[in-house]
Amino acid sequence: MKTNRILVAPSILSADFGKMNEEIARMERCGVDVIHCDVMDGIFVPNITFGFKMISDIKKHTSLPLDVHLMIDLPERYVSRFIDSGADWLTFHVEATEKPAAVLESIKKAGIKCGAVISPDTPTSALTDLFPLCDIALLMSVYPGFGGQKFIENSLERMRELKKLRDATGSSALLEIDGGITETNAARVADAGADILVAGNTLFSASEPEKIVEKFHSL
Ligand code: DX5
Ligand code: ZN
Question: Per CATH, is 7-217 categorized as 3.40.190.10?
Answer without folding.
Answer: no
